[in-house]
Amino acid sequence: MAKIKIQQIGSPIRRTKDQRATLIGLGLNKMHKVSELEDSPEVRGMIRKLPHMVKVLEG
């Protein structure tokens, strides 16, 4: 299965609990951290939920 790299570009400070939980679900918790995950509809949905906080590097 294909992989996708995601980088956190936004801070979780002053964000709602569900946005923070989504970041943790993506394996991100610090600024500029990069996480490599399987490219699945679930991961794509989490990325669409946080377009202002994450950037897709590959995929």
Structural class: alpha+beta
CATH class: Alpha Beta
| Distance N to C terminus | 11 Å
- Our estimate of the beta-strand percent is 25-35%
Helix content: 25-40%
Spatial sequence of strands, sheet with the most strands: 2-1-3
H-E string: EHEHE
Overall mean pLDDT: 96
CATH architecture: 2-Layer Sandwich
The 3D shape can be described as globular
CATH superfamily: Ribosomal protein L30/L7
Count of distinct structural domains: 1
Unreliable parts = none
The total count of strands amounts to 3
Oligomer classification: single chain
CATH fold assignment:
Ribosomal Protein L30, Chain: A
Largest pleated sheet? 3 strands, antiparallel
Name the descriptors.
59 residues; alpha+beta; Ribosomal Protein L30, Chain: A; 3-stranded antiparallel beta sheet; 31% helix; globular; structural constituent of ribosome; ribosomal protein; Ribosomal_uL30_bac-type
Structure, briefly:
The protein has 59 residues and is α+β, with helices and mostly antiparallel strands. It has helices spanning 17-25, 41-49, and strands spanning 3-8, 34-38, 54-58.
Written account of the structure:
The structure is a single chain. With 59 residues, the chain is of the alpha+beta class. The protein has a single domain, classed as Ribosomal protein L30/L7 (Ribosomal Protein L30, Chain: A, 2-Layer Sandwich). Helices cover 31% and strands 27% of the residues. It starts with a strand and ends with a strand. The mean pLDDT is 96.
